Structures are given as structure tokens and as C-alpha cells.
Amino acid sequence: MQVDIHDGILSLIPDTDLKSSQKSQLSYWEFYKNNNSYERNIIEDDSLLIKVINFFDKERIQLELTNNCKDYLKKIESAKEEFQTIFDNSKSYKDGDSQSVKKFSSVTTAIQSVATRKLKAHQLKAATHLYLSQNGANFSVPGSGKTSVTLSVYEKRRQEGKVNTLFVIGPPSCFQPWRDEFRETLGREPIYQLLAGGNSEDRKSSYFVSASKKPELYLTSFQTLLRDHKEVETFMRRLGIDVFLVIDEAHYMKKLEGNWAKSILGLSKYAKFRCALTGTPMPKSYSDLYNLFDFLWSEHDPLTSSTKIKIQQYEKNKEYQQIKDILKIKIGPLFYRVRKKDLQLKPATFHDPTKIQMNKYEKLIYDLIENRIVEFSKEDYLKNTEVVKRLRRGRIIRLRQCVSYPHLLLNAVEGYDEDVLGGETDLVRIINKYNDFEKPAKLEYLLRTLRETNSQGEKVIVWSNFVSTIELIQKLLKDNNINSKSIYGKTPIEQQSINEEETREKIRKVFLDTKSGINVLIANPAACAESISLHTTCHKAIYYDLSYNCSQYLQSLDRIHRVGGSENVDTHYYFLQYDNTIDEDISKNLKEKADRMNSLIEEDYSIYNLDMFEGDDDEQAYIHLFGEEK
Q1: Is it the case that residue 47 has pLDDT exceeding 50?
Q2: Which residue has the higher pLDDT, 452 or 428?
Q3: What percent of the chain has a predicted confidence (pLDDT) above 90?
Q4: pLDDT at residue 168 above 80?
Q5: Which of 437, 457, 489 is the last residue of a domain?
Q6: Which residues, including other chains, have CB under 8 Å from residue 106's CB and lie 6 or more apart?
Q7: Of residues 446 and 605, which shows the higher confidence score?
Q8: Are 275 and 155 contained in the same domain?
Q9: Are 257 and 285 contained in the same domain?
Q10: How many CB atoms sit inside 10 A of residue 420's CB?
Q11: What share of the chain is helix, strand, coil (3-state, %, to 5)?
């Protein structure tokens, strides 16, 4: 059988008819019949030629390789040898081998020289490793400076003439930090293009720009990338555009069949260098790593199909040590992690919760709702499982609303239509007119605290999980001549089409400005717990209310406890808590989760199950508080 490669097409020309089993295998590999030959595009799969050779060798069919094929095999072998060198260098450096550290000290020095900001020791190590690995992952904890590390390596590659474009894909909340860090790390303002939302035609026209006139920094969201995939591919393939491709908050790629992941994986081969950044590489499962390393090294497949199957089987049997051993060998050298202890930050102070007694009407409302829920739970056995799950989740949200702001009980809860007010007309009237009767006791305490911190010019972030509560707090502060800003789900994320409204980024800058007179920022963790840094001038956080979501809670903590401000400054966390309410259970639950998470996060190959409950947080909390039946 003659085997040839021409214009990216692999052709097989058999001397005799193939067996049906052989034809089936070629069909499985998506070969198509073209006269007397079987053909298939090989551009998407460099390993296909080797698979074909191995298969027909086992079938005892003699193959005649053309010179094109032989050259192609030499190219594959050369790439394998290059990858092995990268792998070995990355491993020896990460392991701290003294000869390796000495050998690559010039790389470390060069990286520091291109950055106008002096990098921390742990950042220089991470940057050197990323440079050596070429396509690397940085799994360092939040606040360790992953963005600065990546920018330094990009600049080194740019000055070498190997790249000229930094293309970042991530959640919109990371856009401003990248622009800020670009300026702070590299000492120049980035010429950037924001690709998120706005008019579709205007946005897509941005990709069709000459190499000489293009911006240096591109920022796009996962959603926009999905819509603009073809245009991005055209842009990245254009002559003269050499891309350093970064996936920020790369845990969003965790869904194996997700459209986001497919789009990103399809683009990876057009980038000169690739990088994945996330502090939580395995949120729920070891399989969350697959897409990350397929993106980084698709052409070398460090986690092969057989390896993935083996890992899945071990995971199913809870044989975690075997998985760790595999990952350490297969991908250990290709990623770098800085742990929290490596940051050398001053330990944060977690103050004991401030115990507060509810005011008259909010206590009346809470007790009635709690009793009502207990009554409801007695009849849950009559309902199907899915209905019960929704009811349990909704009931917990109702209790959480009670300890935040009773007026929230009038708001609908998605997927929950149970009448916890039970036709109690007096109760409905009290909730409707609640603002006329009293203020929540937490709010009164918060106001006294913020008056004191504001008079001293201290910056404070106040966290609440409910939009209406945030609006209530802001109104009260305004009435008491305390200037504040808020960030929550309704606040627009910066896009080209938005210029008349305040954006998260502008609010953050105003809040951090020591001369702005804005000393209070009110935010919800869902909108502000990721990618936003507040640590330069804000060192106090007050948690007005909490949820059972440990992931958001942990990320909110890191907003004010980070590298570049927390090394020599005390950081304080305060918690407001109503006595004998769900507040106490949430606080205890989060502490247990956080303690376990902090022990796991120091390990390289643990599953970072941030939620810790096997399922919905609120539903599991309900079972804990009220039992399966009451």
C-alpha cells in the first residue's frame, strides 16, 4: 500500500482490496473513498499517520511511504524530541534542581529586566517556569500575581520577536485588571481592543485589521468568543499576527463537551504560545483538567484517551492516590502552583461574629416563617423528589432573606412558589409596611460601625447576597451623609457600547482612590468575588449576610488579602450574626468548608470541591437543619 501526504491530505492507495474490518477502521478515522484511494485531511490530527502505520503493520500489510511521508514523520519525531526537552527542563526547574535553577538563571534575570515592576520571588519562579514550559498552566492561589507573571513572560517573548499580540479570554470582570496590570507590570499603557457585547457588526469588524495597525492587547469573554469564533480564527491565522493566547479563570473550561471549550480548543493551534490561569483547576473532578491540557498541548496529548479512562475508573473507585501518581508523572512538570503560604502575607484577622438580637418585627417574621417551614416539611413525603428539592432550596432562601431584610420575602424565588406567608394577613401587612415599623438590627449596627470608620477615612467593603439589601444599605448611608458605591448583578460590565453608566471598573477605581471621599463599597459575592482587587487601600470587610456558597465566600476574602498590599498591612474580617437563627448555621458551615479547603489547596492533586456538599448547598442545608422529615 502506498502512503502519501500532499496539501494536508493523507492518501492510502492499496494494492489489493481491503478487508471489511480494515475498511471499517478507516471509516472510523473518517477516511473517504476517492477512486482507488482512501483520503483524509491530516492537518487536524498529526498523530493520524502514526496510527495508520501501526494499524497496517499489525495487519501485516506492507507500506510504501513517499518522501513527503518520511519528511512528515521526521517532523513529528523532531517535535516529540522538542516537547521532551521542554518537559524535562520544566520538571527539573519546578523540582528545584540546583543545576537547573543555575542553568536558567539568565532567563529569570531577563524576565525581571523586561518588567518595570519588581516581581516577588515566587512570581519570578512562576514566570521562569512558564517561559520554560512554553505552553504552561499557572494554578496559583488567588492574589498571587498570575497576571503579572504572564505579562512578564509575554513581554520577554515579544522582545524576542516571537509574539506581538496578547489575546486574553476570560470573564468580563478580568478585563480591567488586565489593563491595569499591563500598565503596572510593563510600564506602558496598553493599546487594547475590548471584544464583548455591543453591536455585533461593529465588534466583528475589529478582527479585520492589518497587522501593522492592530492593538497589542485583545480582551474577550467566553460568550463573545463562542459567537465570534470564525472571525477570531481568521484574525489569528493572518500573516504577521503572532498570538500569545491566555485563558483567564480557566476553570470555566471544565465542561468536557461545553461549547466554550470546543471554541477555545479549536483556536489553540493558531497561537504561538498558550497559557491557562486558574486558582481552582479541579473544582469537582479530576476530569476538569482534561480541557486545560488539551488546550495547552493538543499536539502532544500529555493526557491520552487511555490515561483519561484510567483516571475516571480510579476516581469512580475513589482510588485517589493512583490518580495523583499518574498526574504527577503526566502533567506535573507542565503547571506551576504558588500556595497561600508562599505569598508571605500578614495573616488576616477573622473576628468572632458580632451577635445581634433581632428587632421586634423581624424576629416575629423570622419565627413565623421558621414555624411555617417546619409544618410544610411534615408533608414532603407526599411529593416527588424533584419537587421536594426545589421546596427545600426555596425555604432556605426564605430564611436567609429574613436575616437579611424581611421585605425580601415579597420577592419571588425562582422555581419556588410555596406560600410561606400562609395567608396571614397581619404578617403580610407587616412585611409590606416593614420599613415604616423599624430598621433591621443589623442595619442599625452597621450604620454605627460605618460612621466610625468613615470618620477615620478607612475603606470598608460590605458584603450582602441580596440586591434589595444592598440598595437598602446604600440608601441608609446616603441619608446619613456617608458616601458609598455599590457593585451587584445589575451593575453593567464595561463594554464598548456602555459609556453613560457607571461600570464596575470605574466604581472600583473611585472607591480605591484615597481622595475620592467614597469609603464604603457594598457588593454581592456573585458579582464581585472574582478578578476584582481591592487590597491596595481597603483592608476591612464586613459580612452583613452570608450564603452557603463556599466558593464565592473564599473568593470574596481574597479581594482584600493579596500580594501587593497585604504583606505589611493588617486585614480584618467582621461578621454580623443574629442569635438563634440560620446565620449561626451558615457561619459554622462556611468555617468548616473553608478549613477543609485551605488544607486541600496546599496540595497539588486534590479535588478542590469548593462546595463540599454533594449537591445543592441550600437543599443540603435544609436537610441538616430540618431533617428528612419533621
Answers
A1: yes
A2: 452
A3: 58
A4: yes
A5: 437
A6: none
A7: 446
A8: yes
A9: yes
A10: 22
A11: 50, 15, 35
User: Residue written as cell 483592608?
Assistant: 539
Number of domains in the chain: 4
pLDDT in tens, 409-422: 988 888 787 777 77
Q: Is residue 597 part of a domain?
A: yes
Q: How far apart are CA 588 and CA 592, in angstroms?
A: 6
Task: Kindly state the average pLDDT of the residues 465-485.
Answer: 96
Cell numbers for 627, please give them. 431533617
Strands 9-13 and 37-41: antiparallel
The grid coordinates listed for 299 are 499536539
Q: Which of 311, 312, 313 is nearest to 331 (CA)?
A: 311
42 compared with 232, residue with greater pLDDT: 232
With 0-12 CB in 10 A as exposed, 13-18 as middle and 19+ as buried, what is 102? exposed
Measured distance CA(55)–CA(45) in Å, rounded = 16
Taking a C-beta distance cutoff of 8 angstroms, is the pair 437, 430 a contact? Answer: yes
- Same domain? For 170 and 247 the reply is yes
Q: How far apart are CA 143 and CA 267, in angstroms?
A: 28
In this predicted structure, the answer to whether residue 559 has a pLDDT above a threshold of 80 is yes
Residue 130 has pLDDT above 60, yes or no: yes
What is the CATH classification number for the domain harbouring 154? 3.40.50.10810
CA distance 474 to 470: 6
Kindly report which listed range (358-362, 427-431, 593-597) carries the lowest average pLDDT score: 593-597
pLDDT above 50 (res 337): yes
Are both 144 and 265 inside the same structural domain?
yes
Least Cα distance to 137 among 308, 305, 280 occurs for 280
pLDDT number for residue 292: 87
Domain end marker among 311, 343, 375: 343
Residues facing 486 on adjacent strands: 522
Q: Measured over all CA atoms, what is the biggest interatomic distance in the chain, rounded to whole angstroms?
A: 93
Q: How far, in Å, CA of 183 to CA of 171, rounded?
A: 20
Q: Comparing C-alpha atoms, which of 418, 536, 523, 527 is closest to residue 474?
A: 523
pLDDT at position 199 over 80: no
Q: Is residue 73 part of a domain?
A: no
Grouping H, G, I as helix, E, B as strand and the rest as coil, residue 345 is coil
- pLDDT score of 630 more than 60: no
One-letter identity of residue 584? E
Whole-number Cα distances in Å, 467 to 2, 445, 489, 597: 69, 19, 8, 28
State the Cα–Cα distance between residues 593 and 582, nearest whole angstrom: 16
DSSP SS3 for 203:
helix
Residues 6+ apart with CB under 8 A from 147: 177, 178, 181, 185, 248, 277
Predicted pLDDT at 281 = 61
Q: Comparing C-alpha atoms, which of 412, 383, 397, 450 is closest to residue 586?
A: 397
For residue 213, is it within any domain? yes
Q: Which residues contact 54 (CB under 8 A, 6 or more apart)?
A: none
Whether residue 423 sits in one domain with residue 445: no
Task: Give the number of other CB atoms < 10 A from CB of residue 187.
Answer: 12
Domain of 417, in residue numbers: 354-437
317 and 417 assigned to the same domain: no
- Say yes or no: 277 and 409 in one domain: no
Is the sign of the CA dihedral 329, 331, 336, 341 positive or negative?
negative
For residue 239, pLDDT over 80 is answered with: yes
DSSP for 31-90? -EEETTEEEEE-TT-TTHHHHHHHHHHHTT---EE-HHHHHHHHHHHHHHHHHHHHHHHH
**Do 422 and 492 reside in the same domain of the chain?**
no
| Confidence bin at 629 (pLDDT 50/70/90) | very low
Say if pTM beats, i.e. exceeds, 0.85. Answer: no
Share of the chain above pLDDT 70, in %: 91
